[in-house]
UniProtKB/TrEMBL annotation:
PANTHER family, per database record: METHYLTETRAHYDROFOLATE:HOMOCYSTEINE METHYLTRANSFERASE RELATED, UROPORPHYRINOGEN DECARBOXYLASE
GO molecular function list: uroporphyrinogen decarboxylase activity
Entry keyword set: Cytoplasm, Decarboxylase, Lyase, Porphyrin biosynthesis
Residues given in the record as substrate binding sites: 23-27, 73, 147, 202, 318
Name of the protein this chain belongs to: Uroporphyrinogen decarboxylase
Span of domain Uroporphyrinogen decarboxylase (URO-D): 18-27, 135-151
Stored InterPro entries: UROD/MetE-like_sf, Uroporphyrinogen_deCO2ase_HemE, Uroporphyrinogen_deCOase
Entry EC no(s): 4.1.1.37
Listed pathway(s): Porphyrin-containing compound metabolism; protoporphyrin-IX biosynthesis; coproporphyrinogen-III from 5-aminolevulinate: step 4/4
Natural source organism: Qipengyuania qiaonensis
Length: 341
């Protein structure tokens, strides 16, 4: 029996609004911090299917969200393509060798790195209530490419953007490889039990409009088309953070079934500009959730009212901050659950 979230992603508007939060399984939860202390670092837990499943289910057990998002990372794909991946305390993820320095064919593919992720999905789907939607995910090609090229994250994605202008054929080859891997990776998640998947494009906002068309819209459209052919019943959520005024074109041209919206956009504008009837996800500010001021409830209601005439999944404009108090999350949930659109 499909749950409220899956129904909404399939275009049905009910009397209640489904709710899940990006990074809902993570460091703001004391049970996550305790498990990490016991099991080790982030990457070790992502590849430990039992631990990753337990983490995925922690926010469901505590809050009763409508969706469980796989505990993993977008850099599993470059790790499987053949780059070395490590997470350094205080520095974030590091990939080597950097593709700004070496050719793509210098890497040796290791698809076995996907297997623990598929097992996590299988375990979670077995243990979740049937009305809770199991969500898989992957990074979108542009965002993944920025890490592969530079070997790490950056504020302006300088290395990848410069490579796009200096040697577009090299960047296009990297993107195509990520597209091919991502299709296989998300297909594997779906076959393991994911009922919907999300493409995270965290760095989509750094591109000029013509580059956005080439580097964001076209690769995502290729992934969505392949997934729709293989798994026509599985919705794909596209989340191009920072897309701004380019969001409607992304929604129309990529073929995604639902669009995630960050907190920088006016939800009333989004409701007007997106294709009629398209499900939308977002766009509550994670920093307002962290602050927990008197505006928390009123802003949540503003978002809910803005999207009241279309299928809407309540979510944040990006991931929950690790310093967010549990009580603030509970206030937000109560506001969303109490809303009658």
């Amino acid at each position: 029996m499909p749950g409220l979230l899956l129904d909404t992603l399939n275009g049905k508007r009910g009397t209640s609004v489904p709710l899940w939060l990006m990074r809902q399984a993570g460091r703001y939860l004391p049970e996550y911090r305790a498990l990490r202390e016991e099991r080790g670092g982030f990457l070790a837990m992502a590849y430990d299917s039992e631990a990753a499943c337990e983490i995925t289910l922690q926010p469901i057990d505590r809050f009763g969200f409508d969706g469980a998002i796989l505990f993993s990372d977008i850099l599993i794909v470059p790790h499987a393509i053949g780059q070395h991946l490590e997470f350094l305390a205080g520095e974030g993820p590091k990939l080597s060798p950097r593709l700004v320095d070496v050719a793509l064919d210098a890497l040796t593919r290791d698809p076995s790195r996907y297997e623990p992720i598929y097992e996590t999905v299988r375990l979670c789907r077995q243990r979740l209530p049937e009305t809770v939607t199991m969500l898989g995910f992957a990074g979108s090609p542009w965002t993944v490419a920025t890490y592969m090229v530079a070997g790490e994250g950056s504020r302006d994605q300088h290395e990848a953007r410069a490579l796009s202008y200096r040697d577009p054929a090299k960047l296009d080859a990297i993107l195509q490889r990520i597209v091919t891997e991502t299709i296989e990776y998300l297909s594997g998640q779906i076959e393991a039990g994911a009922e919907a998947v999300q493409l995270f494009d965290s760095w989509a906002g750094s591109l000029a409009p013509d580059e956005f068309e080439r580097l964001v819209i076209a690769p995502n459209a290729a992934i969505v088309a392949a997934l729709r052919e293989r798994h026509p019943a599985t919705p794909v959520i596209g989340f191009p953070k920072g897309a701004g005024e380019k969001l409607p074109a992304y929604a129309r041209e990529t073929g995604v079934q639902a669009v995630g919206v960050d907190e920088t956009l006016d939800p009333n504008w989004v409701a007007r500009e997106l294709p009629a009837g398209m499900p939308v996800q977002g766009n509550f500010d994670p920093l307002l959730l962290l602050a927990g001021s008197d505006r928390l409830e009123s802003r949540a209601r503003d978002v809910l009212e803005a999207f009241a005439d279309r299928p809407h999944v309540f979510n944040l404009g990006h991931g929950i901050d690790r310093r967010t108090p549990i009580g603030h999350v509970e206030r937000l949930i109560a506001t969303v659950r109490g809303f009658k659109g």
